[in-house]
Amino acid sequence: MPIRAAERSSLVDRVIEQLQSLIESGEWQVGTKIPAEPVLTEMLGVGRNTVREAVRALGHSGMLEPRQGDGTYVRASDALGAALHRRLRRAGHLEAMEVRSGLERDAARLAASRRDEEDLAALRSALAARTAAWLSGDTDAFVRADVAFHRAVVAAAHNGMLADLYSHLTDGLHRAIASVADAPLPDPRRSQADSHADLLAAIERGDPAGATEAVAHYIDDSVSSLRALQDADPLPEDVAHGVGRPGAHDGGAARQEGDRS
């Protein structure tokens, strides 16, 4: 039987499947660095070229991210996440905020009806960490804490599909939140401490309408801030192209506590 050219491709495909399994099972967590090429070659029992092609393919798909001089990192936990990451790279901040609005309103509504004591404890802790990070002046920590709070709200909704979808938006949220951290906007425009406290209070008392109203408040503030940046003269290049810079804005962080009146 003649040798078929597809044989090598099949071997690469099998290696891709094994690497995907390590990612999807959680053994390789999102954000972690995968083993170096020589280590993978030994682990998988294949040649370096095969490993290189498999890693390159997963890089093109968006599941892995090569970083020059540093190695390769896990970027998405599954094919859906990889597809969303690719789409988010082309999305503007306002587009991301509109998607965020829909997901977070539903999450808040469900969380107010379904949360348990463990969820409430996690939410209180996350909100306290958000406040502490803001007061510390560490903007990177604030962005992380803000996203962690919203992920805790989504977790309290007890809907696995919603949680998976939201987790894949994390990178886009980081960029949108960070994009206006140092913007020349009045502090009250960037302040959302009250609306976040209102969200937690509504979830605590089991008030779905109050929870969705709190989300609407901070989303409206976020959109207003982003539009103010886009209307600025001159328009910041990073914002114009939808690429965030380091900083903190929860969809509107503030240097003072309190919402826009």
Computed over alpha carbons, the radius of gyration is: 21 Å
The CATH architecture designation of the largest domain is Up-down Bundle
Sketch the major β-sheet: 2 strands, antiparallel
How much is the average pLDDT? 79
Structural summary, described in words:
This protein has 261 residues and is mainly α. The protein folds into 2 domains: 6-77, Arc Repressor Mutant, subunit A; 91-240, GntR ligand-binding domain-like (Four Helix Bundle (Hemerythrin (Met), subunit A), Up-down Bundle). The protein is 67% helix and 3% strand. The chain has 13 helices and 2 strands. A two-stranded antiparallel sheet has the order 1-2. β1 (64-67) and β2 form a beta hairpin. α6 (117-136) runs antiparallel to α11 (193-204). Residues 1-7 and 233-261 have low confidence and may be disordered.
Outline the fold blueprint:
Blueprint: H1 6-24, H2 37-44, H3 48-61, E1 64-67, E2 71-74, H4 79-90, H5 93-114, H6 117-136, H7 139-156, H8 160-167, H9 170-178, H10 187-190, H11 193-204, H12 208-231, H13 237-240
Antiparallel strand pairs: 1-2
Helix pairs in contact: 1-3, 2-3, 5-7, 5-9, 5-11, 5-12, 6-7, 6-11, 7-9, 11-12
Task: Put the structure in a nutshell.
The protein has about 260 residues and is mostly helical. It has helices at about 5-25, 35-45, 50-60, 80-90, 95-115, 115-135, 140-155, 160-165, 170-180, 185-190, 195-205, 210-230, 235-240, and strands at about 65, 70-75. Helix content is about 65%, strand content about 5%.
